[in-house]
Specification:
It is a single chain. This protein is α/β, with parallel strands linked by helices. It has two domains: 199 residues, Rossmann fold, CATH 3.40.50.1100; 99 residues, Rossmann fold, CATH 3.40.50. Strands 4-5-13-10-11-12 form a six-stranded mixed β-sheet, with helices on both faces. A four-stranded parallel β-sheet has the order 8-7-6-9, sandwiched between helices. Helix 4 runs parallel beside helix 5, helix 4 packs across helix 8 and helix 13 crosses helix 14. The longest helix is centred in the last third of the chain and has 16 residues. The chain is globular, with a radius of gyration of 19 Å.
Length: 389
């Protein structure tokens, strides 16, 4: 069954504002920039508000009225509905009164990627795609492989040789994905994946530059807003690699505001690893563009990315929200991972701990204050990357 009203949307260029009909395209034919999905939000407002009246449990598909999918039978493995845990011990240590952790490691493949993958794989089915493709540092490949298996699709993964955590790679393998190792880093893998999908109509790219992925990931915003009693946090700390997630969370809050469901937005504070921080560097220098890093290196392998595809979206998110982009050293990330585990019982992978390291730095420098309501997004479970052991 399909709901044509729900599926109606257009693709809008984030740079030149060109508007395109829905398609497999993810970049603007006029200027080459990324696209995002936009709706007539006014026409969806009543249905969306009605959906919010349903009792929990929460899930990605609770918010289907603001998702670009026609079918009423999505490809789902139970994604979303992750906990928003109020901090006790770590909050006291940092002198904070309202600190929360959004634990995305509780998703089916143990990372936030599942939110976007349920939507983009469902869209792939609507488009009649038979093979999905991604470049990955680990979590994307694990998630894509699981959802492709659920849908009965073929899955191919390009990974940088020797640059992926085994816990993530084994997930992609067990779900039946074809693994292709390439020389170079993630940026080289993504460049090759983009080229392959541009040359072959039978491949569908599901990395976060695909705007349908972002639509699923934006549901983190709706969910944390509901979990906070429909209150908006003052700031949200998000690890930044390819920059899709910070872009998605910001889009979710923009839509809530456009629907007149909130009257203010949170400050978006992205955190990059210091060894892979082109967006933080550009922000610190006041630039309106990034200079890609050819040889990014960090212990936080999930965000070891030197040429993030969604950099423009990320910069817009922090600029429009009066936020910031910080960086954290590997030593700071390691300490943050330990603190999170020791004080809160949450084991996040190194990339997740980057957000906590940024929070500690922001508290020390006065970027946030004692009574601010803060959410740290813990993007993936620590068992996926056991380099700590």
């Amino acid at each position: 069954m399909v709901n044509p009203t729900i599926s109606q949307h257009v693709l809008t260029c984030i740079a030149c504002s060109a508007r395109l009909d829905p398609s497999k395209r993810f970049s603007c034919p006029r200027c080459g920039e990324l696209l995002e999905i936009t709706y007539d939000l006014h026409s969806r407002r009543r249905a969306f508000i009605t959906s919010l009246k349903k009792p929990p449990p929460y899930s990605v598909w609770r918010y289907r009225e603001l998702l670009p999918i026609a079918t009423t039978h999505p490809i789902s493995i139970g994604e979303g509905g992750t906990s928003l845990t109020k901090s006790d011990r770590l909050a006291r240590k940092l002198g904070l009164t309202k600190l929360y952790f959004k634990n995305e490691g509780q998703n089916p493949t143990a990372s936030f990627k599942d939110r976007g993958m349920t939507v983009v794989i469902t869209k792939a089915m609507e488009l009649g795609v038979r093979t999905v493709l991604c470049a990955s540092t680990g979590n994307t490949s694990a998630s894509m492989a699981a959802y492709a298996a659920r849908a009965g699709l073929n899955a191919s993964v390009l990974i940088p040789s020797g640059k992926i955590a085994k816990g993530k790679l084994v997930q992609a393998i067990i779900h039946g994905a074809k693994i292709v190792q390439i020389s170079g880093n993630f940026d080289a893998a993504l460049k090759k994946a983009r080229r392959m999908t541009e040359q072959r109509d039978d491949l569908y790219l599901v990395n976060s530059l695909n705007p349908y992925r972002i639509e699923g990931q934006k549901t983190i915003s709706f969910e944390m807003w509901e979990q906070l009693g429909k209150r908006v946090p003052d700031a949200i700390f998000v690890p930044v690699g390819n920059a899709g997630n910070i872009s998605a969370i910001w889009k979710g809050f923009r839509e809530l505001k456009a629907l007149n469901l909130i009257n203010r937005v949170p400050r978006m504070i992205g955190v990059q690893a210091a060894g892979a921080a082109p967006i933080a560097e550009a922000y610190a220098k006041g630039l309106d563009h990034i200079v890609p890093w050819e040889h990014p290196e960090t212990w936080a392998s999930a965000i070891r990315i030197g040429a993030p595809a969604s950099w423009r979206k990320a910069l817009k998110a922090v600029q429009e929200s009066n936020g910031s982009i910080l960086s954290a050293t590997d030593d700071e990330i390691r300490r943050a991972q330990r603190l999170l585990a020791d004080h809160e019982g949450i084991f996040g992978e190194p990339a997740s701990a980057t957000a906590v390291a940024g929070l500690i730095k922001a508290r020390r420098t006065g970027l946030i204050h004692a009574h601010d309501a803060i959410v740290c997004v813990i993007t993936g479970h620590g068992l996926k990357d056991q380099s700590i052991i």
